[in-house]
Amino acid sequence: MARIRLRRVAEQMKQVIARVVTQELKDPRCGFITITRVEVAPDLKTAPVDFSVLGSGSQKRNARTALKSARGYIQNRVAQQTVLRHTPVISFKLDESAERDVQLVQKINQIVESDRRAHTARAIRSKVAAGSIPPEVIHEISEAAASKEFAESLAGLLMQLIRENTTTGPHPAGAAGSERACLQIIEAELKRTWAGEIETELLPMGREIQNDMASAQPNSQDPDEAPGSSEQAHAQRVNLLAVLRSVKSEDAQPSNDEEIKPLRLVFNTHIDTAPPHVPPSRRGDIIRGRGACDAKGQAAMIVGAFQLLKHIRDQLGVRLLRDICAQFVVGAETGGSGSLSLALRDPFAFDGVVVCEPTGLRVCIASPGTVGYKAELTAPPGRAAELAADVVLALEEEGRSIRVESDHPLVPRSAAYTNHDILGPFGTAPATAPRLVEVEISSAELGLADIRHAAERGVGKYCALYGDKARESDPDTGRPAIAEHFTVERSAENSFLLRIRGKAGHAAAPALCDSAVTKAAYVVREFSELRASGKSLDVALAGHCGDEIILEGAQGFLPTHKLGQISERVDSAAERGVHTLCARAALEEGSAAVKMSFDSRQRAAFARDPDSALAVYMTETCKRAGPDLPTPAASYEAPSDASVFAELFPERDIVVFGPGRLESAHPPGETNSLKDIARGASILALLALESAGFGS
Question: Phi and psi of 111, rounded to 5°?
């Protein structure tokens, strides 16, 4: 009877406490608390209360603190609402068992899902190995893709696209017009190929993306651009959606295995490009010009795939069983996000998306994330260059720490890159390593030799960490990646000009670039330390006046980290850079400041299962397309719009794939191979047949 009474008292107290906690306590720290058990002591003097919290470790700690501070109130409410001579003294204890149960169920579900995917993957590999696509179809696609006529068609289309300047340039409104013209070229080619059998639509950039962290206003290269003009240009921008409708066939038998479901696919790429614009040229198989690789060459590949599908329809009567969608978007390089705009509209229900980027025809199922930052620096008089250098070096140090912490089976540590692409008047575009920074030194005490020696010390420290590109060969030219790290000349009496040089390129390929901003930071640090030691000198960025300066860049990260974590660390690192200058120069705290903002180029890192249906179809299709193609699933080195789809559609399959090398994407000599574009088109066409199913 005593045990029954104890259970009755415990249950009554549990109901009262749960009601008080959920309905009466107004402390926001309580969060999602559940009272799981009350255990009353046999002498009725004490009653430990177990509770669980849905949330992170900090949320659990906050809930425990809130309950502890409200214990007296809860105790009084229990006394008022229970019929007990002496109310047991309550205490609170976090119950981890409920969370462990949830985690156990999640692990079981993950194992079941993994087994299901593995079974599907084996079935797909068996299906492809058994020759699900007739040899004559494969032969027809391969022959057509390798033909001179197809190469000339791709070359004509790609050069026409490159001629359109889809960098933002000085006026964003002009970019919107060029983007539209470029998309209309693609639309006209798709309509010409499929003559009334393909649906196309130019869709405006949606207002719903304006405040999304994956988006941004179009970048302007004109510092005097009138406020609001970027927003107006954003409203004028459009994306192209094309849907090739399937034709059902009674003879269509995509698979006898119920585990293999036909896939509805999206092929996605962007047509905006990083500045400066480079007009097209051709030398044999190689197309040169801005966008040849990133990403107008990808657009040409997608159009080519649609042309090959039309070719086999006409020649062999082969028809798709599922619709295929193509998205040609703007915003990956110039601000905004057409992919996000179309994904939020979701006008096309899909099972998997192939985001086309220059992967070297590798199938990539993961990619790093990126946190783009803008640092508005305010320095004491004459200290702007020194402050910028200290902030850059603090961000570099934090980036190295992030790389050390990063360990992922698919994404290499090098993808946790740190890049500073714009410093004051230097730098051309986001995600591009700058190749020149000019520094002015004024001193009546130092001579030309002193200036050179200080610059050499700074460059030596830089090269010790990042390598010496003057001793490395450029893979495209065979010559040294840079001819010299810097030059110095006397510009006037007691004044010297340092030109610090680097190698431009895509920031996500840091091993192949040589950032002039980072190198300049090490050089400026040397002069800052000379100044702190008592030498009389001034250091400034050439062409920059005043005590305010803008620094922009990005920090890459792996799926081991979250976007919010990286933003906080970048912010803290920039503050440390400010404190470094104040300590070295004996300045008052607050005399220098940094205001950080993170309103552009935010991409989460993502990774997908190598056994996902789309990944398996892609790798098996690449094997069939040629033994020289890299087939294991890998990681794309740079952030891409794949993360937009990964965040919005966590259950859908995503791969990144396309011709060209990332290191060829942003330098002035951007190139791509027609042969690789044609092979990529044949792979996409075969992928569509394998995954979507076909009939006659």
Answer: -65, -45
% residues pLDDT > 70 (the chain) = 85
Does an H or E element contain 364, and which?
Answer: strand 364-367
Give me the residue label for tokens 């996409």: 684
- What is the separation, in whole angstroms, between the first and last Cα of the chain? 79
CA–CA gap between residue 495 and residue 441 (Å, rounded): 6
Helical packing angle, 384-405 and 563-584, nearest 10°: 140
Confirm if 59 and 30 have CB atoms less than 8 A apart: no
d(CA 643, CA 6): 55
Q: What string of DSSP letters covers 479-496?
A: SBS-S-SEEEEEEETTEE
More confident residue, 477 or 401: 401
Say yes or no to pLDDT of 250 above 80: no
- Tell me the C-alpha to C-alpha distance, in Å, between residue 197 and each of 43, 193, 245, 655: 83, 9, 7, 27
* Band of pLDDT at residue 108, cut at 50, 70 and 90: low
SS3 at position 554: strand
> How far is C-alpha 226 from the geometric centre of its chain's CA atoms?
29
How buried is 359 (Cβ within 10 angstroms: 0-12 exposed, 13-18 middle, 19+ buried)? buried
Neighbours of 483 (CB within 10 A): 10
> How far apart are the C-alpha atoms of 578 and 572, rounded to whole Å?
10
SS3 assignment for 204-225: ECCHHHCCCCCCCCCCCCCCCC
Place of tokens 């462990």: 100
Q: Give the pairing type, strands 671-673 and 46-53.
A: unpaired
Task: Identify the residue with better confidence: 589 or 611.
Answer: 611
Report the alpha-carbon distance of residue 176 to residue 173 in Å, rounded.
5
Would you state the pLDDT for residue 223? Answer: 43
pLDDT at 429 over 50: yes
Query: Three-class SS string for 84-113?
Result: CCCCCEEEEEECCHHHHHHHHHHHHHHHHH
- Cβ contacts of 539 within 8 Å, gap of 6 or more: 385, 386, 439, 440, 441, 442, 524, 527, 528, 531
Residues 6+ apart with CB under 8 A from 565: none
Yes or no: say if 240 and 183 are a contact pair by the CB < 8 Å rule. yes
| Helices (H) then strands (E): counts for the chain | 17, 28
Taking a C-beta distance cutoff of 8 angstroms, is the pair 445, 531 a contact?
Answer: no
CB distance 432 to 505 below 8 Å: yes
Do 183 and 238 touch, CB atoms closer than 8 A? yes
Backbone angles phi, psi at 374, to 5 degrees: -130, 120
Instruction: Report DSSP letters for 265-330, one per residue.
Output: EEEEEE---PSSP---EEETTEEESTTTTTTHHHHHHHHHHHHHHHHHHHHH--EESS-EEEEEE-
How many CA atoms within 13 Å lie on the side-chain side of 455? 26
Query: Which of 100, 21, 32 lies closest to 68, judged by CA?
Result: 21
Beta strands in 558-622 (DSSP E): 593-597, 602-603, 606-607
Estimate to the nearest angstrom the gap between the alpha carbon of 364 and the chain centroid. Answer: 14
Instruction: Please say whether the dihedral angle defined by the alpha carbons of residues 193, 136, 358 and 147, taken in this order, is positive or negative.
Output: negative
Nearest-5° angle of CA 390, CA 640, CA 503? 45
Tokens of 40: 């009353």
Q: Which residues pair with 593 in a beta bridge?
A: 378
SS3 508: coil
Distance CA 500, CA 688 (A): 49
Please give the structure tokens belonging to residue 201: 């639509």
Whole-structure pTM value: 0.73
* Size of the chain in residues: 696
The alpha carbon dihedral of 396, 397, 398, 403 has a sign of positive
Distance CA 624, CA 602 (A): 36
**What's the CA gap between 423 and 233, in Å, rounded?**
25
